[in-house]
Amino acid sequence: MARKTKASSESTQNDSSSSIPDPLAAAKHAAEEASGMAAGLGEMWNSMLSLQIPPSALSELQSNYIKQATELWNSALQLGGQPAPKAKPLGDRRFADEAWNANPAAAFMAQLYLLNSRTLQQMADKVQGEEKTRQRIRFAVQQFVDAAAPSNFLALNPEAQKLALQTQGESIAKGMQQLWADVQRGHVSQTDESAFEVGRNVATTAGDVVFENDFFQLIEYKPLTAQVHERPFLLVPPCINKFYILDLQPENSLIRYAVEQGHRVFVLSWRNPDASCAAWTWDDYIEHAVIKAIEVTREISGAETLNTLGFCVGGTILATALAVLAARGQQPAASLTLLTSLIDFSSNGILDIFVDEASVQLREKSIGPDAPKGPGLLKGQELATTFSFLRPNDLVWNYVVGNYLKGEAPPAFDLLYWNGDSTNMPGPMYCWYLRHTYLQNELKIPGRLSVCGEQIDLGLIEAPVYIYGSREDHIVPWDAAYRSTQVFKGKQRFVLGASGHIAGVINPPAKKKRSHWIGRTAALPATAEQWWAGAEEHAGSWWTDWSQWLASHAGAQKPAPKTAGSRKYKALEAAPGRYVKQKA
């Protein structure tokens, strides 16, 4: 699809006044680019060279290690190859099976591994140098330590060996079959993928696709109440995942919950980009997706304003779109909900270690708009693998051991099925996002960025904002989510939920699980720590608090529509639509 888009103010523009290439200018340009990349790599290398462990700290670590290793060795010698009569649990679930304590060699190997692991991690913590480089060292050490666990190897895993003997080798045979199946799939299976089908037993809330273009399908859900609020409710999910995390099962569906609360619900379902979409930009996602979805939702409903919600990067995209509209003198949002979304990218936890000038330039030169071979795609599986290795024991090695060494098929789990249903991202869009948010943190600065031809200022968005963060979120740390309160200028409410990036968000009230924190006053101080000092814990889901807040911005009740869409926008196909079924 050919389209001329408005570039951001930072984009390089070609001089259309001349069609004759200037070899000297081209050479100079290439040299400048190479110099920039070399400078970035050189800076990284110099940072590595500057790392050191203080001699006193290193001496203490060595002394403690020798002492503990000697005690471990002497204890093993005293047992004389016999199991300890009252062996203490090793305190690590990878070695929780009784086979580890029953086998003296395995028990010694596990204890030695845990000692080595602790020592390496302590060494990484003692390294002095630039903070981002220290974080990379800690991350690399953790990856090595987790990969090197004796539980990951058949020859060192007595639990897997015992199972092989009990099954007369059947567990090994099944493990090899599952390994070969995963090789063909291209990823480690985390669940029984054959147990789920989008539209059959996940993403089942009834509705219809009422609009589509190259970028997205717009789904309108069938009302479940006789009356609905006059203002419609538009949800923008992350484009790096599929929308049905918000609609996994009826009992944990945020979409269904909103419909049950009497909202006329619309959801943007992103297209899974293929090679024909490789040139799509950030501006395309804003103008031709979110802004278009807002326009169509208003036309169908006949409402001047609507309630909006963005989840994760969907929140970043939605806020950007509303800022573009604000720059055009439009305020279509009656409210804005941001779930675990980043607006201020000052400090973003573990993800920060992957982003610097050199890494961003590498992406720009490989899949960006000016890549030598043209724009490319960031493959969904690459992104999924990266996120899995943020928690390698839970999302990688646990399944390597279970699937391959023990031959145990992973159980059916809807959340992990969704997690493995990856999506691609267009290179130009992804590179813009990396550079202007994670690297240069410009989105929060009024007037710094030009998007869709407009200088944007998020402070011009007049809608009240409900900001949610998850306390154990490793992708959007809750203090990073809180920093959004310092960017928007209107009325705001911040709520903190327990658990992580997904489990914290998808926490229906009926489950009566976890808890959430609300400030004792409406004040939103400058830092998350100050807010936390004045927060009060409440049992159960945050959904009920949010539902009350949303209802206060949803307007009066009116009879629910009998059919989806309108005369202009007729139902095209049943929800969840075909876009969400496209595989990466």
From TrEMBL:
| Locations listed in the record | Cytoplasm
Biased amino acid composition, Low complexity = 8-31
* Domain of life assignment: Bacteria
- Biological process terms in GO annotation: poly-hydroxybutyrate biosynthetic process
Q: Which UniProt keywords apply?
A: Acyltransferase, Cytoplasm, Transferase
Record region (Disordered): 1-31
Q: Which GO terms describe its cellular component?
A: cytoplasm
> Which EC numbers characterise this protein's activity in its record?
2.3.1.-
What InterPro entries does UniProt report for this protein, alphabetically?
AB_hydrolase_fold, PHA/PHB_synthase, PHA_synth_I, PhaC_N
Q: Which SUPFAM superfamilies does the record associate with it?
A: alpha/beta-Hydrolases
Q: What class of enzyme is it?
A: transferase
Q: Which GO terms describe its molecular function?
A: acyltransferase activity
Q: Which residue ranges does the record assign to the Poly-beta-hydroxybutyrate polymerase N-terminal domain?
A: 92-258
Q: Which NCBIfam families match?
A: PHA_synth_I (TIGR01838)
Recorded protein name is Polyhydroxyalkanoate synthase
Which species is this record about? Roseateles oligotrophus
